[in-house]
Amino acid sequence: MLDPVSKHQSFGDRAVSLPLPIRLEGLTYESAGKRVIDDIDLEIDCQRLTVIMGPNGAGKSVLLRLLHGLIAPTAGKITWAGRPLDGFLAKRQAMVFQRPVLLRRSAAANVSHALGLRHITDPERTKLVAEALKLAGLEEHAATPARILSGGEQQRLCLARALSLEPDVLFLDEPTSSLDPASALMIEELLLDAQRRGIKVILVTHDVGQARRLAKDVVFLNHGRAIEHQDSESFFTSPHSESARAFLRGGLVL
Amino acid sequence: MSDFSDAFHTALGLIVTLNHDLVEILLLSLRVSLTAVAIASVLGFVIGGALAVYRFPGRGVVSAVLSALMGLPPVVAGLFVYLLLSNAGPLGVLQLLYTPTAMIIAQVVLVTPIIGALTRQACEDLLEEYDEQLRSLGASPTAIVVTLLWDGRYRLITAVLAGFGRAIAEVGAVMIVGGNIDHVTRTMTTAIALETSKGNIALALALGIILLTIAFAVNGALISVQRLAKRLAYA
Ligand SMILES: Nc1ncnc2c1ncn2[C@@H]1O[C@H](COP(=O)(O)OP(=O)(O)OP(=O)(O)O)[C@@H](O)[C@H]1O
Ligand SMILES: [Mg+2]
């Protein structure tokens, strides 16, 4: 089971200080004439885990890609502790995509490749690869071609690869959507552990129970707008907006 | 009809006894085509990988030209290299015309577009899937090219095999720049053309059988590579 105390342990025991606050000003992303992200103003200052929720098509994945610098906003800007995202900050971020993207190589080689891109060399590299596979519970699958792993195993491998890079900021897009309850719980533990080590985790999830267990604060997105941003506690007990209330009831969000 | 079966028997005899002329021609053909394909592979991988990843003005035109050159007629490739290497040509001082080197150059010209275009296609397909993940991992464009080439390795092998199949079977290019000189630049295809016209059907037939065997072997290798890639989910 999850250790309830772990949510209240101290943070920031890492050497590098996190690039907080993350400030979004008038952030807008239009594609094919559609406003996918619509004028979001938001400040995320909390070192602990932030959850982004919202119905399908709300713009959660696009928002993560904007934050990670994979796509550029059509208007507005994002700053990290006052700076725009530059190469240095980007190298200290990692992302686990909604659909696992794994190379046509063994599980071990996938992790090793990512570490190689950060110029981490042997023997350190071999050690980190072994640790990552252990973390994901994939030791026996080290030599298995990554793409014949099961969907859940692939998601775990993607997370392990991201964690092996020791990022400051970790984005996750529904990392437990195809996991069985035990694996989902294992991922949650890994995320809490990452948070404890001072990694800023930003998680997109549809799982209300998971969000309650993990989140310090919640951003609720609908139709590309940030409808709410508040402390997890109050969001789940008394959401301000009707759309969030409907979403939490499991009803239709308009 | 009995003429033909006689010729066929003589041909088999030439093969089984490893006839000296036959083996010499076979080895020269293999040396020329394998060397050409090796060089064309390096060029094709670099050109194809770069075209898939780097954005520069004129990239679309270069890609289109490369694809169009896949169908370059061998005689045209031969003519082009002939003009380059002939005494009046820009590389005339090298005195390479009618040497195996000239034939290698001609086949490189012929095969590089094939391997290059197939490599570009393979890398572009992979990039569509990998692009955001690789950028997320902080890969430089060069690192992306290297990653794509390695992950496309099974498709690159098929591209190389296709290039080899083309090189070993073509006659126009080697004929023009090699000149089909006995013991110097006589390859399987040019020998077949010459011996047939001279009425020496047996040697032509023997070489034809060998060529056909090579074609089957290349095709068999292609199928095995594709099967293996599929089994590992690396296709
Ligand atoms: N490149 C794009 N061009 C055009 N429209 C896009 C693009 N990317 C996303 N969209 C659209 O933007 C909207 C938001 O997409 P997004 O993937 O962010 O949703 P999401 O909140 O992550 O949904 P889900 O919960 O289903 O993953 C969708 O309607 C989608 O079709
Ligand atoms: Mg999404």
Short structural description:
With 254 residues, chain A is an alpha/beta fold. Helix content of chain A is 35%, strand content 24%. Chain A has 9 helices and 10 strands.
Helix and strand topology:
The complex is a heterodimer of chains A (254) and B (235).
Chain A: E1 22-31, E2 34-44, E3 50-53, H1 60-68, E4 75-80, E5 83-84, H2 87-91, E6 93-96, H3 107-117, H4 124-135, H5 151-164, E7 169-173, H6 181-196, E8 200-204, H7 208-214, E9 217-222, E10 225-231, H8 232-237, H9 242-249
Parallel strand pairs in A: 3-8, 3-9, 6-7, 7-8
Antiparallel strand pairs in A: 1-2, 1-4, 4-5, 9-10
Chain B: H1 2-16, H2 20-53, H3 59-69, H4 74-85, H5 100-136, H6 141-151, H7 153-169, H8 172-178, H9 188-198, H10 201-231
Helix pairs in contact in B: 1-10, 2-5, 2-6, 2-7, 3-5, 4-5, 4-8, 5-6, 5-7, 5-8, 7-10, 9-10
Bound molecules: adenosine-5'-triphosphate (ATP) and magnesium ion.
Can you describe what's shown?
- The complex is a heterodimer of chains A (254) and B (235).
- By secondary structure, chain A is an alpha/beta fold.
- Chain A folds into two domains: 1-92 and 167-254, P-loop containing nucleotide triphosphate hydrolases (Rossmann fold), CATH 3.40.50; 102-166, no CATH class.
- In chain A, 35% of the residues lie in helices and 24% in strands.
- In chain A, α3 (107-117) runs parallel beside α5.
- Chain B has one domain: MetI-like (MetI-like fold, Orthogonal Bundle).
- Chain B is built from ten helices and no strands.
- The longest helix of chain B has 37 residues, at 100-136.
- At the A-B interface, β6 and α3 of A face α5 and α6 of B.
- The complex binds adenosine-5'-triphosphate and magnesium ion.
- Magnesium ion (MG) is lined by residues 60-61, 98, 173 of chain A.
- Adenosine-5'-triphosphate binds next to β2 and α1 of chain A.
